Amino acid sequence: MVAPTAKKLFSVTLRIWRQAGPQQPGKFVDYPAANVSPDMSFLELLDVVNDGLTKDDGEPIAFAHDCREGICGTCSCTINGKPHGPGKGIATCQLYMRSFADGDTIVVEPFRARAFPLVKDLVTDRSAFDQVQQAGGFISVRTGAAPDANSIPVPKEDADLAMDAAACIGCGACVAACKNASAMLFVAAKVSHLGLMPQGQPERDKRVLAMVQMMDAAGFGNCTNQYECSAVCPKTITHDFIARMNRDYAVALFREKFKPASNASGGAG
Amino acid sequence: MNLLGSLFSSSIGRKFLMAATGLVLFGFVTGHLLGNLQIFLPPQKINAYGHMLESLGAGLWLIRLFLLACVLIHIWLAIQLTLENRAARPQDYGVAHINRATLASRLMARTSIVVLAFILFHLAHYTVRAGHPLWSEHTFTLADGYTKVRDIHAMMVEGFSNVAVSVFYIIAVGLLSYHLAHGIGSMLQTLGLKNEKWTRGLERFAVAYCWGYFLLNAAIPLAVLGGFVKLHA
Q1: Which residue from A56, A158, A180, B147 could staple onto B142, CB 3.0 to 4.6 Å apart?
Q2: Mind listing the domains of chain B with CATH numbers?
Q3: CB count, 10 Å around CB of A237?
């Protein structure tokens, strides 16, 4: 016997920000959507709406998406004012239509921040995060054969904490949620995930100074400790990492200032 | 980049300065409250205390200048950071949504304006003693029998007998407490003196401190208005 699959279908109105390009003016446009299954993902509904638009020779809604399983950080809508929409610890692609009710009007906007310039409709350019990452979010190691897994002992607690920070998928929801469009949670996660590991120690001071400098240069706002960022983070990364980065930054600032410089001019020849 | 340059130009550096000056001012208002609470002791206590502070001479001016510098840095950076924060989101959302930002944290700028207005009024009232020439005279004799000092006890009783002054005072200390309700936690977060193990305890301390600060401050004008603290003979 086949289990009954017919679930009550319902209708919603999608109120979506349409903007043809960075220089064009944008506005909200309503798209009624009928026969919505509660088991559809939100992005699947956008696909269906786009199919209809394409059939009618309309311009489909541009939205960013890739893995659709919450690990790539590409999807980026602000839904009803909340980045990634209702729900805790999920990205937009993990949002299902069962989170909404019949007759709802769902307002969909791009992530809004000066550092994330709009490309089209719901798509923003988040390469500012790449610049921050490139400023210091790495460790310098010689390439070659993979080292033995246990050659550097790492305490379990440190590994766990570093993994919590490393869960950041760089989606930018923290910036989108912060009233100041501050990137502190993203940068704190990246600084902490390497700074907590022994492999990250040689460049620890340089890393935090360079990444914060790049964060400031990219035009993000300043943190006012309201923790909107961690409330919307799809990976529920805690703002305690921000306190940790602040601490790291202070120490690095003083250590850089007072660190004695070597007189050595080069190798032993 | 040099140390001072980083402090005054980077986002985290300026947050450190906000937190550090905030900590100094937090310490000041706490000490100021403890001094004021001597109004509930016999008049010679608070008058002797005031005399001790005034006799610090140059030291008193050093402290005043230091506090002034802290206030100015705190205000200047707050304005600068706020302008930058607004510029960081040129286009607002169509739907405003707040996840967990407390009301106190969202009203920091507004509470600070009332607090600033109150500080200016308070300095004109009790430090410059504008409109009260008699308050500048040394008319109180200390317990040693011959040292004449300013009668701070009488100043406070006369000052707070004015209902409008007392109401403004209570509103201002209320808003200052509310400012600190976000400020204390924010300061600890910015200085990095916070983690998941401490958070609950620190939050409780902040709430208890703010209520205590407000109620003890409000008790002073209320005690004067209620006739519990009277002009001494």
Answers
A1: B147
A2: 11-87+101-225 (1.20.1300.10)
A3: 25
For A27-83, what is each residue's pLDDT tens digit? 999 999 999 999 999 999 999 999 999 999 999 999 999 999 999 999 999 999 999
Closest residue in A to B7 (Cα–Cα) = A253
| The two structure tokens encoding residue A194 | 């390497």
Q: pLDDT tens across A152-169, in order?
A: 899 999 999 999 999 999
* Domain boundaries of chain A, sorted by first residue: 10-119, 126-141+154-258
- What CATH class does A126-141+154-258 carry? mainly alpha
For the segment(s) A10-119, the CATH number from 3.10.20.30, 3.10.490.10, 3.40.640.10, 3.30.565.10 is: 3.10.20.30
- Complex confidence, ipTM: 0.91
Of A80, A114, A246, the CB nearest to B88: A114
Q: Which residue of A has its CA nearest to B196?
A: A240
- Please name the residue of chain B whose CA is at the shortest distance from the CA of residue A219: B88
Cα of A67 to nearest chain B Cα, Å: 26
Question: Closest Cα to residue B38, out of B213, B220, B224?
Answer: B220
The span from the CA of B25 to the CA of B70, in Å, is 7
More confident residue, A245 or A257: A245
